[in-house]
Specification:
By secondary structure, the chain is of the alpha+beta class. Helix content is 31%, strand content 26%. A five-stranded antiparallel sheet has the order 6-7-13-11-12. Helix 8 packs across helix 9. Bound molecules: flavin-adenine dinucleotide. Flavin-adenine dinucleotide binds next to strand 3, helix 3, strand 9, helix 5 and strand 13.
Length: 297
């Protein structure tokens, strides 16, 4: 198991910002993972699990605890139309394997830069499909340290959420129920969606994708654009000119820059349209310093 002290979290988050984690560990088996969580509990040290860090903003003061990376859970195989993937497997790898095996269902996920575990926990989705549409079951480490396999119906998936976080479970492995398809057609669909992403999204800058959840009856990007906020900056963070739903790390942004810009966008959209935008990005660490500076400024 890899264990590192004082690990910069900007190396592990797609925003490329944030301070250090006191400890960063990479277990490679459920037993090692259980050992880490047990030791943390015994020592009263908090821990937090990360997949690919593509929906995560860690504060500049870092994380005073143990970051558990699931990268080591990397098994990937297919049997019939079931694809089994460890929680650390990048979605594009799972989607590419499905494609090669002539299995359809994961095309929508190929361009989401998350891990299988993070995407399952968040019920990530795109282009009209969500993880819950293809997840057959998840094998999890439960809050009391047991390993259980839960069927899709038991996971109460919602919009960008599931019972995984609510019940303090960790995803170890996912089974996807896919359909027989044609490799060429699956690849074509993946390429088409990837073209759309490149066209619409500011993929040339670090970000965490859509910063805010889609509010009922509208789109966050549309509301932000209508409030005239494209190009709005806070330090090195900026509301993308290409897609207003993305807050980007334009130029060496700190996590506080990104955080303050998110809050400013929320405030101005509320004033302009009366809508409360909710962050889709997960915050980790202490942002009270950024809040204080916002009040002073
Ligand atoms: C350019 C770009 C485009 C994006 N496009 C989309 C999109 O189209 N659709 C979409 O839904 N999202 C999108 N995202 C956001 C992000 O990729 C997804 O939310 C993704 O599912 C997050 O996965 P992750 O492994 O990076 O999770 P992380 O960011 O590492 O973690 C996210 C949350 O999941 C939890 N978590 C991670 N792994 C596990 C695990 N094994 N068990 C339990 N909990 C876990 C973490 O604790 C955290 O709360 C985009 C991001 C970027 C940067």
């Amino acid at each position: 198991m890899i264990v590192r002290e004082k690990e910069p979290m900007r190396l592990h988050t797609s925003f490329r910002a944030g301070g250090e984690a006191d400890w960063y560990v990479k277990p490679e088996s459920p037993e090692e993972l259980l050992r880490v969580t047990k030791e943390c509990k015994k020592a009263g040290v908090p821990w937090y699990v990360v997949g690919n860090g593509s929906n995560l903003l860690v504060s500049d003061t870092g994380y005073q605890g143990v970051i558990i990376s699931m990268e080591g859970f990397d098994e990937l195989n297919t049997e019939g139309s079931i694809l089994t993937a460890g929680s650390g497997v990048p979605l594009f790898r799972a989607a590419n394997t499905a494609c090669r095996e002539g299995l359809s269902g994961l095309e929508f996920a190929a361009g989401i830069p998350g891990s299988v575990g993070g995407a399952a926990a968040m019920n990530a989705g795109a282009y009209g499909s969500e993880m819950k549409d293809v997840i057959h079951s998840l094998t999890v480490l439960t809050a009391d340290g047991g390993v259980r396999t839960l069927m899709r119906e038991e996971l109460s998936f919602g919009y960008r959420e599931s019972s995984i976080a609510r019940e303090g479970m960790l995803v170890l492995m996912a089974e996807f129920a896919l359909s027989p398809g044609d490799t060429g057609e699956v690849r074509e669909q993946m390429e088409e969606l990837s073209r759309k992403r490149r066209e619409k999204q500011p993929l040339e800058y670090p970000s965490a994708g859509s910063t805010f959840k889609r509010p009922a009856g509208s789109f966050a990007g549309k509301l932000i654009e209508e409030a005239g906020l494209k190009g709005l900056r806070s330090g090195g963070a900026m509301v993308s000119e290409k897609h207003a739903g993305f807050v980007i790390n334009y130029e060496n942004a700190s996590a506080s820059d990104i955080y303050r810009l998110c809050r400013e966008v929320q405030k101005r959209v509320k004033e302009h349209a009366g809508v409360e935008l909710e962050l889709e990005v997960r915050l980790l660490g202490d942002f009270s310093g950024a809040d204080r500076k916002e009040e002073e400024g």
